[in-house]
Amino acid sequence: MKPTALLAGAALLLAAVAQVQAADLTARITLQLPLKSHLGQNLLLFKEEVEKNSNGTIAVEIYDSAQLYQDKEVPQAVGSGAIEMGVASLTRYVGDIPAVDVFYLPFLFNTEEKVRKAVEPGSAVRAPIDEAIAGTGSTVLWWQAYGGSVFLSKGGPIRTPEDMKGKKVRVFGKTLGDFVEATGGAATMVSGSEQYLAYQRGTVDIGMTGVSGVQSRKLWEVMDTITVTNNADIEFLVIANTEWWNGLTDEQRRIMVDAARKAELDVRGRMSQIEADAYAAAKENGMTVYEPTADEIAVWKAAAQPVYDAYLAKTGELGAKLVEAASAY
């Protein structure tokens, strides 16, 4: 290596060490998806904003691809203070707060306009959810859009509930499982980081996921068809341990809140394009993309009614309040 290259490398190393030493606060974030995913890139935006606006006194470390915790473990890890921050699928709170699965009620949030109204900070849908999550030891910093839920399959599309009968279907939430059961399938809970192997090994016959995940996880290598049902809206939360959060200075919180809001607006604003790019990538890699007809969607909706009944029965007053608010959009 040339002396100039050695000097340049040494300078970069010294700069990195100096930055770490200069940081008064380090915030670690656990993420189950790859850093190249749009959620990972969104965290990088947050990191850049925080470190820039704090002049390096706050360092943000991102641990992607479930290096530290799987999605299902994040609420407990963050709530207990085992890690400062994390990204978790909203449905991971269903054990403590069953009503969070309002976003998984079949076809309730089937347009971007409805989703945007529901997830706006302070909305009649989001505010009660954020407040309920505060009771688990975590503070919601921002919501990350992940898009609509689709079906993945091999050998042809999933046109109607008839195609679900007797099939094992990967789900990532209790209410999605109820939907699968109502349409004749057998629901199987599989975490996002494990779904590639589940499809490859035939552990499940059909997958349910967001189309952006098809791209970031290269699921076209193990599945060949996407059915665009948009039967649910998938949301992730970036959460912080409340005790840690409350221990920050006002200035540290302000910097992180501002960065969080910028990150939230960015990912929400780009979601339509992210999904369009993911569909294009899927097609380029040999997948067939099938869009159900209006008549086929009507059959799905009719089959899904028991899911609403079950949701309202187990979520009580909060669930009824959220459904009423969502139905008004």
Helix/strand layout:
Elements: H1 3-22, E1 25-30, H2 38-53, E2 58-63, H3 74-80, E3 85-89, H4 112-119, H5 126-134, E4 138-153, E5 168-171, H6 174-182, E6 186-189, H7 195-201, E7 206-210, H8 211-216, E8 225-227, E9 233-241, H9 242-246, H10 250-284, E10 288-290, H11 294-303, H12 305-327
Parallel strand pairs: 1-2, 1-3, 5-6, 5-7, 8-10
Antiparallel strand pairs: 3-9, 4-7, 4-8, 4-9
Describe this structure in words.
The termini are far apart. 47% of the residues lie in helices and 19% in strands. Strand 1, helix 2 and strand 2 form a beta-alpha-beta unit. It is globular. The longest helix has 35 residues. The chain is built from twelve helices and ten strands. The chain has a single domain, classed as D-Maltodextrin-Binding Protein, domain 2. Strands 1, 2, 3, 4, 5, 6, 7, 8, 9 and 10 form a ten-stranded mixed sheet that branches. With 329 residues, it is of the alpha/beta class.
Descriptive keywords:
alpha/beta; D-Maltodextrin-Binding Protein, domain 2; 329 residues
Count of DSSP E strands? 10
Strand-and-helix sequence, N→C?
Answer: HEHEHEHHEEHEHEHEEHHEHH
CATH classification class: Alpha Beta
Question: What share of the residues lie within helices?
Answer: 40-55%
Gap between N and C termini, in Å? Answer: 63 Å
- Tell me about the largest β-sheet: 10 strands, mixed
Stated plainly, the CATH topology is called D-Maltodextrin-Binding Protein, domain 2
Number of domains: 1
Average of the residue pLDDT scores? 93
- Strand percentage lies at 15-25%
**Integer-rounded radius of gyration:** 21 Å
How many alpha or pi helices?
Answer: 12
Low-confidence spans: pLDDT under 50, at least 5 residues?
Answer: 5-16
In one word, what is the shape? globular
The chain-level structural class is: alpha/beta
Architecture in CATH?
3-Layer(aba) Sandwich
